[in-house]
Amino acid sequence: ARAQAEAAQTAAKAEAFANYRDAAVVDMVLQKLPQVAEAVAQPLLGTRRVTLVATGPGDLGVARLPGEVLDVITRLPAAVEALTGVPVTQ
């Protein structure tokens, strides 16, 4: 009975450490997300002229630019998951 209790405790600790690792990775990503958004938008600050070529429905011209920046940022969770194996969206 004692060995079973110790085995159960060890298994519970292993599961807790695995969950903590995933949570720590997600926490780091979420803390860095504003910096990533800034880094994506930073090159646009000194831009004098932007030429956007787009097809399909939606905004045109400069009105499309924020959506393009957001599109880059929304791809980040999938990239993090591909690199780390941690499903950030969960």
From TrEMBL:
<comment type="similarity">
    <text>Belongs to the band 7/mec-2 family. Flotillin subfamily.</text>
</comment>
<dbReference type="GO" id="GO:0070528">
    <property type="term" value="P:protein kinase C signaling"/>
</dbReference>
<dbReference type="GO" id="GO:0002090">
    <property type="term" value="P:regulation of receptor internalization"/>
</dbReference>
<keyword id="KW-0472">Membrane</keyword>
<dbReference type="GO" id="GO:0002020">
    <property type="term" value="F:protease binding"/>
</dbReference>
<dbReference type="GO" id="GO:1901890">
    <property type="term" value="P:positive regulation of cell junction assembly"/>
</dbReference>
<dbReference type="InterPro" id="IPR027705">
    <property type="entry name" value="Flotillin_fam"/>
</dbReference>
<dbReference type="GO" id="GO:0005768">
    <property type="term" value="C:endosome"/>
</dbReference>
<comment type="subunit">
    <text>Heterooligomeric complex.</text>
</comment>
<dbReference type="GO" id="GO:0045807">
    <property type="term" value="P:positive regulation of endocytosis"/>
</dbReference>
<dbReference type="GO" id="GO:0016600">
    <property type="term" value="C:flotillin complex"/>
</dbReference>
<protein>
    <recommendedName>
        <fullName>Flotillin</fullName>
    </recommendedName>
</protein>
<dbReference type="GO" id="GO:0072659">
    <property type="term" value="P:protein localization to plasma membrane"/>
</dbReference>
<dbReference type="GO" id="GO:2000049">
    <property type="term" value="P:positive regulation of cell-cell adhesion mediated by cadherin"/>
</dbReference>
